[in-house]
From TrEMBL:
NCBIfam families: PncC_domain (TIGR00199). Residues 14-160 form the CinA C-terminal domain. Gene3D superfamilies: CinA-like. This is Competence damage-inducible protein A.
Length: 170
């Protein structure tokens, strides 16, 4: 997966509306996106009804101290890892007392870090019905990788909500 389709402003407004209509709240836990994900959410009118907050845990130790990510997990795998992304999403839910937590962690570039190529990104979403994770391999410069991670995280939340709606109708 080299590129991520961008979630446009209309689709993002629909996501905020869906969260509002379902009475769900959301919080973010971010590393490589540096607060860009929560900023993208709050750029949308009506976001104040659903966005509880965001934690930018750029430093590895902040993932543990702020979000409760396992120090042993971080020591074992480093921050660019599926379990770290999942724990970050859970940590956002707990920290902000939200229904949904969404996280981003990875390597924005320009070069490799922690043994991973630039563009390697893990996103996760913790929600009332469970957790979802996606591993991304994004192309482009640092800004493109960060933007792609933000869009992928928003799309993941939308997909989780779509799945929950279809499951509720069964």
């Amino acid at each position: 997966m080299g590129t991520v389709i961008e979630m446009n402003d209309v689709e993002l407004a629909e996501l905020i509306t869906t969260l509002t209509e379902r009475g769900l709240t959301i919080a973010t836990a971010e590393s490589l996106t540096g607060g860009g994900l929560v900023a993208r959410l709050v750029d949308t009118p009506g976001a104040s009804h659903v966005v509880r907050g965001g934690a930018c845990t750029y430093a590895v130790d902040a993932k543990a101290s702020v979000l409760g990510v396992s120090e042993s997990q971080l020591a074992l795998t480093g921050p660019v890892d599926e379990q770290v992304a999942r724990q970050m999403a859970r940590g956002a839910r707990a920290l902000f007392r939200s229904d949904i937590g969404v996280s981003t962690t990875g390597v924005a570039g320009p070069g490799p870090a922690d043994g991973f190529d630039a563009g390697t990104v893990h996103i996760a979403c913790a929600h009332p019905r469970g957790e979802e994770h996606r591993l991304l391999h994004l192309d482009g410069d640092r800004a493109a990788v960060r933007a792609g991670a933000i869009n992928a995280a928003l799309i993941l939340v939308r997909d989780v909500l779509d799945f929950a709606a279809s499951g509720a109708d069964d």
